[in-house]
Write a structure and sequence with these properties.
The structure is a single chain. The chain contains seven helices and two strands; from the N terminus they run H-H-H-E-E-H-H-H-H. The protein is mostly helical. Strands 1-2 form a two-stranded antiparallel sheet. Helix 3 crosses helix 4. It is globular and about 60 Å long.
Length: 146
């Protein structure tokens, strides 16, 4: 919290109201976290995989996390309905554009690939990228050693 608050103060003052990211050059890393990751780090299970039309891949934990994060993001504080809808639509469009590049990597069964990669991504994000034990690799090491 201190890191993010420091980033905010530095970027709004020295960074000319946030137009420039001065804090990163000073060594204050940017954190892109949501409440779903917080729940995961607290030990809440992600639950079953859900493929929601238009919305895309999700789990009950990620849906709850996105709901809380969207309320905290300030979008709901926008009083003009047209502006709030435009900001939400722009966010959805930006999210979809990020997925287009990744879709070219899909090999084999599309559903299984998306499910497995999304669940691995959630696990990676909720542990902040720390190494997780991989049962497949452990089994292969036993196989190769014998």
């Amino acid at each position: 919290a201190v890191n993010d608050f420091s980033r905010f103060v530095i970027n709004t003052t020295i960074g000319l109201a946030g137009f420039f990211d001065v804090a990163s050059t000073l060594g204050l890393d940017r954190h892109d976290e949501d409440f779903g990751q917080t729940l995961g780090s607290w030990g809440v299970d992600s639950g079953p995989f859900l493929m929601i039309p238009i919305y895309g891949p999700a789990t009950p934990r990620s849906l709850a996390g996105r709901s809380v994060s969207s309320v905290l993001s300030g979008t709901f504080a926008i009083e003009e309905t047209d502006v709030r809808i435009a900001v939400t639509a722009l966010d959805a469009l930006e999210t979809r554009a990020r997925y287009l590049e990744v879709e070219t990597l899909i090999i084999g069964d599309r559903y299984s690939f998306i499910r497995d990669s999304y669940m691995q991504y959630l696990e990676f994000e909720s542990t902040n990228g720390e190494d997780q034990p991989d049962e497949f690799v452990d089994d292969m090491e036993d196989f190769l050693i014998d």
